[in-house]
Amino acid sequence: xxxxxxxxxxxxxxxxxxxxxxxxxxxxxxxxxxxxxxxxxxxxxxxxxxxxxxxxxxxxxxxxxxxxxxxxxxxxxxxxxxxxxxxxxxxxxxxxxxxxxxxxxxxxxxxxxxxxxxxxxxxxxxxxxxxxxxxxxxxxxxxxxxxxxxxxxxxxxxxxxxxxxxxxxxxxxxxxxxxxxxxxxxxxxxxxxxxxxxxxxxxxxxxxxxxxxxxxxxxxxxxxxxxxxxxxxxxxxxxxxxxxxxxxxxxxxx
Length: 254
Fold this sequence. Notes:
Layout: E1 8-17, E2 20-30, E3 35-39, H1 46-54, E4 61-66, E5 69-70, H2 76-81, E6 84-87, H3 99-111, H4 125-137, H5 153-165, E7 171-175, H6 183-196, E8 201-205, H7 209-215, E9 218-223, E10 226-231, H8 233-237, H9 240-253
Helix pairs in contact: 3-4, 3-5
C-alpha cells in the first residue's frame, strides 16, 4: 500500500532571534521513504530550521509532527526514541574505539542499556550483529576492527552515518553529508545513500547541487527564512525565482 500520510509534517513554524525572523511560517512535509532536500543561500535559515526539528532549538510558534505525534516540545533524546536521528552535525564517534565498537555502542544506547561494558559492546551478539549488518550495508565492514582514528575523512563520515542508523530511524536528518569530501568520496557516499533510499525518510541539507539532484525526490528552497519554492527536482531546476536567488543560470542549465 502506498503511504498517503506524511512521515513528518511541519506547520507554520516560526523562530525569532530578537528582531530577526530566522524561520518565517514554514510549512513542509516528508513522506515515508522520501529523500527531501532543503537548500538555500547562506543565511537562509536552514540550520535554524534543522535545529528545531532535532529539538536543539524551540520554535516560537507552529507545530512539528512525526507521524501523528506532536514532537514540538520534546527534547532531542525523546525524538530519537520516536525515530528521528540527526547525522553529520558534529563528530559523533569515539576515535580510540574500533569501528564495530562505535556502532555497537550506538545500538546499545538506543536499546536503553547502560555503558557498563564499554569496550565489550561488540562482543555481545545482540549488539555486535546488528552493528555489523549496518556496516555491511554501508560497505564499511572491511574496516570493522580498525580504530575510528585511522579512518579516512570519507570513511569517518560513513561511520557517523552508521552510528545514526543504529537508532533505527524513521527519519534521518543529514546535515551537509558531503562537506569537506573530494569528488570520489562524495560519489561513494551518494551511492551508499541511494542504496538505503526507501527504508526511511531523509531530510537532506546540502550545498552541493550535484548531490541534491542525484538524491532528492523533492526539494524545498529557503530564502530569508521563508519557503521560496518546493517541488520535484525538474520543477526546482527550472524555477526562475530559484535560479535568481540561489542556483544561478549556469547551474540551472546543467
